[in-house]
Amino acid sequence: MPTLSQQLLAKEAKYGASNYKPLDVMLCRGEGVWVWDLDGKRYLDCLSAYSAVNQGHCHPRILAALTEQASRLTLTSRAFHNDQLGLFYEELCTLTRSTRALPMNSGAEAVETALKVARKWAYQVKGVPADQAEIIVCDGNFHGRTLSVVSFSTDEPSRHGFGPFTSGFRIIPYGDADALEAAITRNTAAFLVEPIQGEAGVIIPPAGYLARARALCTEHDVLLILDEIQTGLGRTGALLAEEHEGIEADLTLIGKALSGGFYPVSAVLSHDAAMGVLKPGEHGSTFGGNPLACAVSRMALKVLVEEGMIENSARMGRRLQDGLAAIQTGVVREVRGRGLMIAIELDPAAGGARRFCEHLRDQGILCKETHTNTLRVTPPLVIDTDTVDWALDRFSRVLSAA
């Protein structure tokens, strides 16, 4: 007789699309930094749903906000006002020092929104000739899965078989400010970049890169768009990763942890000059800015700040990164990161990161590989010292055994 896990896996295989290859574990419950499978085995979540559960699984204050709002009003569309949207705007803009916010649902929707805003701004404000606006992006980028976004991806599996692609994008090397300067023309509308490339393997640009990018964009009247969907909301030990270089973007994209993992919520943050180009009927979303999303996000932001999760990310990130770097083994080429956004780069001769994820799973830690030889280590921001040390012992066992 197949186990319940086996029965559920068979249903996924029979009825689901085959666009994912999950690690072989069937989860059914989560609390804080921990998740449990159907057999009752506990695991430390070191992926945090790609940084969507920065506040930890099933945070009680966010759960209470969700259930309270769900019992009153969940959806109005933007055809009518609701009593949560204005409060959400005010609290989000005050916290992030933004002037305007536009709520959407997924991170990819936020990216698409920013691309539309940048193009419209280029035509209406900068004076770029119609349909000639260009947006500069970086190789190794990951900004989502929509057709326009994969049009400027350099990851071949993301592009193969999906053409023809959207034009109007120019790709430059990541972390190369000289390449950015050379790519800017009078038709350049925006530069879209991740402060730290997440899916590429936690790639951190050279010090001063973002500051120079900001200066170049200002000099040439180009919008700087920072995709902080993974790096934002405490993940790197700051509210936004832009703070590490003391800059402010023209448009900042946030999502994932904006709802603490309870609900799909994203937002585009901007100033009046950029966001002001949108007029009624030109862009929107049925679910964007709905009262349930706003109530959940308001509480997700409150607990992030009030419970010191951002500061904890910086402290625990240093402890975890230093501990991983101290593990004596020949299979590790590099440990890099900022805050609790960490990667372990493995020697290609070690046989790939996937098998290490499987061994770590057996030790009670859930990680995810990326780009074959990289392990991402991104636990919820509520992790404590004892749990970090517990995890380091398990990482040492697995990496040393290799």
Automatic annotation (TrEMBL):
UniProt keyword annotations, A-Z: Aminotransferase, Pyridoxal phosphate, Transferase
EC number(s) given by UniProt: 2.6.1.13
GO MF annotation, one: identical protein binding
Recorded metabolic or biological pathway in which this protein acts: Amino-acid biosynthesis; L-proline biosynthesis; L-glutamate 5-semialdehyde from L-ornithine: step 1/1
InterPro entries in alphabetical order: Aminotrans_3, Aminotrans_3_PPA_site, Class-III_PLP-dep_AT, Orn_aminotrans, PyrdxlP-dep_Trfase, PyrdxlP-dep_Trfase_major, PyrdxlP-dep_Trfase_small
Enzyme class, first EC level, given as a word: transferase
Pfam families with a match to the protein in the record: Aminotran_3
SUPFAM superfamilies registered for this protein in UniProt: PLP-dependent transferases
Cofactor entry: pyridoxal 5'-phosphate
PROSITE patterns linked: AA_TRANSFER_CLASS_3
Gene Ontology biological process terms from the UniProt entry: L-proline biosynthetic process
Family affiliation: Belongs to the class-III pyridoxal-phosphate-dependent aminotransferase family.
Protein name: ornithine aminotransferase
Source organism (scientific name): Lichenicola cladoniae
